[in-house]
Write the C-alpha cells for this entry.
Amino acid sequence: MLWASIQQTWEPFVLVIGLLLIGHIAASDGIFEAAGSRLSHLRGGPVVLFVSMMILTALVTATLNLDTSVVFLTPVLLSTARQRSVDEKAFLYGSIFMANASSLLLLGSNLTNVLVFSRSGVQGTTFTRTMLLPWLVSVVLTTAVVLAWRWRALSVAPKSFHGDAKRLTLGPGLLGIAGATILMLALSRPAVPVLAVGLGVVGLDLWRRRGVRLMPIVRSANLVVIGGLFVFATCVSVSSRYWHLSQHLVGSTTIWQTAGISALLSNVINNLPAAALLSAKLPAHPYSLLLGLNLGPNLTVLGALSSVLWLKVSKREGATPSVWTFSKIGAVVTLVTLIGCLWVLQV
C-alpha cells in the first residue's frame, strides 16, 4: 500500500523540480524580464498593460508550472507596474489568481494534474485538447474579475515611460522551455524526461558561465517545501487507500459535486494532499476533479503551494499582500471560473 502511494505521488514532485530548474535558468537568461520589458512598451494604457501581463502569466504557467510562474514572474509584474506608475494591486493579486487559474492546460502545469492522471496513461495531447477550452475560459474570466475590481485605479493615465526594451536572447533557458513543453505534450509520464532536461540546462549554464554557483539554483527549486509536501501527500494517499476515502467522497458524484468537494478540500488540507486523497483510484470525473483542485485554491492562501510561495516572493519584493483581500476577491474568482469552466466542460 505504501509503495502504491509512493508510485502515485513521486512523479509530480520530480516534474516540478525539473520545471523550477528550467525556470531558474530562464530567469538567469533574462527571458522573463525581457518579455515584461517588451510588453511594458506596448501602446495603450494600464488596462492594455495588465491584460498583456496576464496573458504572459498564463503562458508561463501553462508551460513551466504555476509555482515557477509565481516565483519568477511576480517580481517582473511588480517591477513593471512600478516603472509605469500604475496600480500595483492589480498586478500583485493578478499574478497569483492567474497562476492558479491557468494551470489547467498541460499535464505539467500543476502538480495536481500529474497526481490525478499519474496511473491513467492519458497522453499529453489528449489532456491538453480536453482542457483547452476550460483553460481559455478560466484565463478570460480571471482577467475580467481582477479588471472589474481594480478598474477605477487602472483607468488613471500612466506616467510616460522611456527606455529601450530588453532583448530576448537564445540560451539554455529557451531551449529548456521548448524541450519541456514538447515532452509534456508528447508523453503520458513526462516527469523524469523533464527533470533530465532541467538538469541538462543547469549543467549547460554552469559550463557556459563557469563562475555560477550551484546553491542558488538548488534553493530556487524549493526542495525543502516540495519534500515536505511529498511526504504529506504520500501519507494522505496511504490513508485514502486504506480507508477507501476517494470512493466514499467522489465515487458516485456528479461533475459539479466532484469539483465542489475537491475545491473545498483543497482549502482545508492543501490541493496536493487533496489530489492524492481523491485520486487514489481514478475518479469518474477526473477533469472536473482537477477544476476544483486547481481553481479552488484561489479561495484561500492555504489552498496551494503557489499561494504560499506568492506570499514569500511578494513580501521579499516590498509588496504588502493581504490574506483577507486574497480571499475576498479570490472567492469571486473561484466561483466565476469554476462555474464557467464546468459549464464548457459539460457542453
